[in-house]
Specification:
The chain is of the alpha/beta class. It has 9 helices and 7 strands. Helix 6 packs antiparallel against helix 7.
Length: 223
Amino acid sequence: MSILSSWYEKVNMAEHGVNSVDNKQAFFKNGNKQWVKLNVGGTYFLTTKTTLARDPNSFLFRLVQEDSDLISDKDDTGAYLIDRDPNYFSPVLNYLRHGKLVINKGLAEEGILEEAEFYNVAELITLVKERICHRDNRPSKDSKKHVYRVLQCHEDELTQMVSTMSDGWKFEQLVNIGSQYNYGADEHAEFLCVVSREYGAPEGIEVEHSDRAKVLQQKGSRM
């Protein structure tokens, strides 16, 4: 039994003058019509019919009615026996208490959905499905988008250009497009330099080219 559930039980029994073990068992069997004790997979939970009434069509609310159409055994303390996982039952009961979906560390959304469906808590089923959908559609760290630029440069400008890149730009690819001009008797090669940086906006990848760069890239691809 959780510390909070144990405290509720002690306070409630004290208010009704319940002290002995026998009286304690009788209290949950016959003496109180509002408080409900559940034995879920060997773990005790103490709650009220008011809490369970958040969803009057749920398995739990129907179970604790005096004229219930559901058949369930009770243990020697008067607790309803439910053969389910107590760890995944906690989020279900807490939702009925305060209307919020709180998932404890180490629990899977699919497991909570399974329990919500078993106990037939309709609004909780919807909340968990939305949580799963949001989780599955969340962009991964590897899906970052980038903006690319293709720059034309001369051989003697290449080292300086790469070394002075800033603002998050990084070198991606270098394409040699051959000799394009002469200075005296020397030929100087020209290059296309592809650079990129991370692009924070949700739009698709943007690729910027000058008209001159497009022509040189096409020529370079044929070499």
